[in-house]
Amino acid sequence: MRNACTMSEYNRLKSMLLDMQPKGLKNGGKSQQRDMEEKRARVDTMFKYLDVDQDGRLVSGELEKISMKEHLEDSLLECTMQDLLRYDDYNNDGHLSLHEFYTAFHGQLSDIAWPASGF
């Protein structure tokens, strides 16, 4: 098991995961609001994809399954999908909620219009 996951490597993993998500059509006249909505939709899509059993939370087993399915363990990164739990399970309940997932990707998408409910 890898244990050399630095914050820099972890940010690279999150950027790689985000890049794997489908991007909207390129539109030169896209408004900033539309761009933020598109970025938020990418995070939503990623959460739904990773949430294999669709129970609204990401657990270790789901992250492991996706990592194997996408062959992410073969990447050159020092971090694994399990590091999402290590770094972003803020209440230490063993899973990531959608709120924690939004928070995890806030740095990559700092201009996302987060929902009014406090995400």
Q: Assign the CATH architecture of the domain at 39-107.
A: Orthogonal Bundle
Classified in CATH, the superfamily of the domain at 39-107 is: EF-hand
Radius of gyration: 14 Å
Main sheet, how many strands, which sense, barrel?
Answer: 2 strands, antiparallel
Number of strands: 2
Instruction: Please list the strands of the largest sheet in the order they lie side by side.
Output: 1-2
Kindly estimate the percentage of residues that lie in beta strands according to DSSP. 5-15%
Low-confidence stretches: 111-119
The CATH class of the domain at 39-107 is: Mainly Alpha
The oligomeric state is single chain
Q: Helix coverage percent of residues? A: 40-55%
Number of helices: 5
Kindly report the CATH topology of the domain at 39-107.
Recoverin, domain 1
SSE pattern = HHEHHEH
**How far apart, in Å, are the first and last alpha carbons?**
32 Å
Shape: globular
